[in-house]
User: Fold these one by one.
Assistant:
Number 1:
Amino acid sequence: MAGPRCRAVLRAAAAAGACGLGAASLLRCPVLHRLARRAAAALMALAGPLLFRVGYSLYARTRLGYLFYKRQVKKARERYPRGHSVSRPLGFGVVKILPIPVLSNNYSYLVIDTGSGRAAVVDPSDPLAVQAAIEEEGVLLEAILCTHKHWDHSGGNAALRQQHGSCKVYGSALDAVPELTNPLTDKERVSVGCLSFEALATPGHTVGHMAYVLDAAPFGGPPCLFSGDLLFLAGCGRLFEGSPETMLASLDVAVGLGEDTLLWPGHEYALECLTFASLLELDNPALERKLLWATEQRQEKRSTCPSTIGEEKTYNPFLRTHRRELQEALGLTRRSGEPADAFRARVLKEVRRRKDLYKAT
């Protein structure tokens, strides 16, 4: 059955035909001109999602995506020869986490067991930048932990595997990760030296998205979540291959890790995400403070990583779907008999819709 947009198109065409009008006459008739404008807008609204889906399929499933990624790498190396942000390593005990700014806003992470000199890298977008860090640290790369298949997270897998023959590539078998050698399922563990990572299935952004949690408790540190495109500072990934319900469940997994968990996201999106969040919650002191801090950081091109799950719960709208103030700001109310999580998924869907439109403008 035709929806309102399709009916607007049909009404304009029918009216023009009934009057025997061509395109020129249509534009001169005020009533038909308004109908034509509405019809054009309706067609664009219908075509937009379709074109987006086609573009995403080309990027994710064909060689065109890889060629686009290579162009991204080339442009980023020229524009940011030292990386898009100034980052600092963080250490506790024998653990050293080195954020590597790559492409125009991505982060790879070199995670080192300084006792044995063995290391894992999370999402090696640019193999040259990662290899430079490996050489500077003088470590042996044992593992690539890939959160998902998108080229801006997996594009360096092949080159690094070629340079480090014994290196294994971990990720989900559901996600067509390049060079995958060791497919993982939910809650499987990966050991690198004395470091232990737990893989968590977190679908939503892609069907096989995984996040990795470093257990730093033996070294006196908090859990460390390498979230890929699941969760950003004040944001979350787009729902390319999942429903709001799926993404909500995955975000709940992250929240369940504990408030002291350090969040190491796949992108430097903090300022954009915090600015968007401030448009939803106009009276949130924690959000105001974090936005001010992030603005100062980004003015100096300093990295905003890491934050904590506890912090994120105070200002990240994608983790605040249960909060009445956010629900009211969106104009949403829980329906009679609606399960709580179903309502939260509706809230998440609306926040994601608004964020997509905000980014587009």
Note: The CA atoms of residues 355 and 361 lie 10 Å apart.
Number 2:
Amino acid sequence: MTETTSYARAQQQLRDRIRGTWAQQPLYIDEIIRSGLTENQITAIRQASQETEDTGLTHFLAIIPGLRVRGYGDWAKFTSEFAFDMHEASGQKQTLVLFSEGETSARSFAYLVTDNGPVVPTGAPELMKSSSDDFIPVELAVPYYLQVLVAAAKGTEPPQAPDFDTRDVGDRNEDYIERFGLDNSDPDTLVFGATTVAALGAALWLLRRRNRYSWRTELTTKPELVASRNLKKAVAEAAAPIPEPVRPDDETWALYDRGRRIQDALAALTAAHPDWAESADFAHRNGVFVLVTLDRWVRRQLRRRSGRAEDEPRFCFLFPHHRKVVEDHVLKQSGRSLTVGLCADCREQLAAGHDPERLMVPKRPGSTRAVPYFHRDDAYALSGFGSFQPLDEAVLDEMSPQRSAAGRKR
């Protein structure tokens, strides 16, 4: 086993242990270090967690072994992606996530997570060290960082950083755990070292991630499709009678009936949503785009005199206008695994560890809150634009006053 493989496995095992506890409660203390923590330390950690919970904000706190393997930037990536996963699972508008070492000093990773991604609040992105080059101890770090996250979430001023003295307790009469070193004439106060390359690299990485995922909180506005795909003209053309098959047989008559249903579904959609071309809900114009594409396919097949039949068009589950090599893919959503059609670009994004952009629509009519279209309960979500059932069937079930005729009587 290579060092890289061993490292990745250890990282995944740590993640699994934390995730298992977080599914039940917000506080995780790794068993590897629990026995080395004093009662005062455990009490301070639990009290800080409880006080955060009392604010009504969702939080997750992990006390973990020292993160000395590899570099700061690698752990920043691991913890920030983990934090965003927990935010998605929580379903909240914002989530507080803190990872803190639990040994003699506590390097910490604190995140305020929104749908835009994990953000390191002011007062938390720096490598927090004392002037003697120590990180602050866990019983001070955890309450402080959680207070910073709560302040960032509520838009209030962050707390003052605690003072502490890192000299050996045996060299003096007072205990800094109890008195925080405030009685010393020259306390060893915190120095915020934001100039290190590692901290800067992590901050830039988080900024890029935030920009990459800015679409999460915005309604989809492009591509607009109406003009670029000439959809209004396509809708008018789709109203023309479906041609009878050039080579009539059971298969082509079934396709003829499908064409009638697609035609009826398009009429029902545009009647139910007459503003489909101008609406802020881009699901409607994507629905029209899918239906007119299917209509054109049916007409081509019915006019075909010879040659190989053309496969039915497929549409990307995440963004229906994506058409590049759509194939079945197992996609994890909200703890479930769904087999859906995904285009080559979206599959490539997922393989690289990114979350592909998706069709974002109003949560409900008139709402400005953006959600993925498949989080609603309508024809588009139920069909997945063809991943779960044909869109024309779902539209007729929802929008047509009565189901279309069974087809041509023969």
Note: The longest strand covers residues 58-64.
Number 3:
Amino acid sequence: MGCGSSMERPSSVSHHLPNTPMRPMQQNVDGRTIVQQYVRLDEQISKLEASSPGPRLATAEAWIEHLRAKRDTMLGLEGMEHPVRPSTTTTTTGATPNANEVRVERVAHQLTSYPLTLGAERGGNEIVANTPTKDLAQLAHNLAVIGDPQKASTHEDFFANLSESALYLLSIRYYGELLEHSKQRLKTLSESYAELNELYVKQDGIIAYISGGTYLTRLEENIDAQLEVARDTRDKLGSALEQWRICGLLLRAAANSATQALKQWQQLGRLIDPKQKLQSALDCRSLLHASLTSLEAAQLSLPHVELKYMSHRQVLAVNHCNTYLITDIANAARYEHTSRVFSSYEANISKTCTWHHDTFHKTLRSDFDKAEETVRGLARTLRDHREEVFGAARK
């Protein structure tokens, strides 16, 4: 997903910008004022560049495509084209969207607004395919699977199928929520990048006005070349920084959900009323699935990094326990086994979260800060030199 230095700043000295705004700088403008404008703009640019909005934006765009592809695969819509700004009425140009675009948005909306209703195409059993969670709860109560170990054993596969279907739909809803959250991040980065580009254009206009778009000294050219190399290194690290940020947020969400789920499961063991037990179990199941989905997305965001303390085998064990959770409540041995599985998972996902945080700050964060310090130093040197030579050129 890493995009490297994918968003380059326009060169201010080797290219003339065709639409460079020149009106603010009339011929009778004081040269000292123009140079001061250049210095202020360059300081603003250095400050805004430090957050690497361009490379982060490219990474955020790639991440949204990953999430959309994942969601569409689960919906059975992979391969369909998406509009830039999805709409079920008209596009920004007034044209009517094609049938594929409408279907993608309609199905996604239906499955996120009513997440526990499954289409008949997923399973051959109509009861399994059309039973939402509230009906599952009523069935569990009517069949007394919460308090009777024998009845729970008899119906465990039936309820496991219901749970599996409901959890599948929860996954679609969770990925839809992740997608919407990521779009908000994209919007924030887009605004920062647009602001930075606006500053670039203004600065390029000043440089073109003073020097005609050419280097005035050999030293200016050398420093600028060094600065571009340093920026490229910093921007590549900035792109990776965004990937690790995404992963870190998802791991923290996974850890928090796992902790809440474990508390819910432990509390369940102290409840007596079957309805309260069932509701607590359903809440626990949703929290655990949210944790597993966040963990899956975290690994998707850093596909080439092995997340320490968390194994595929453990994830499968947690998922299996979560699927059979409803009918395991009545069986004391299974309840204890599930408790151990959940406790181990909660402890390990917390360790993974801590490991990610420590690794990030000891390696990537440190490398990025050093690269940014190099860029800042070179930018300051170039700014000081240009302030001197530009001032001399305008006298």
Note: The radius of gyration is 28 Å.
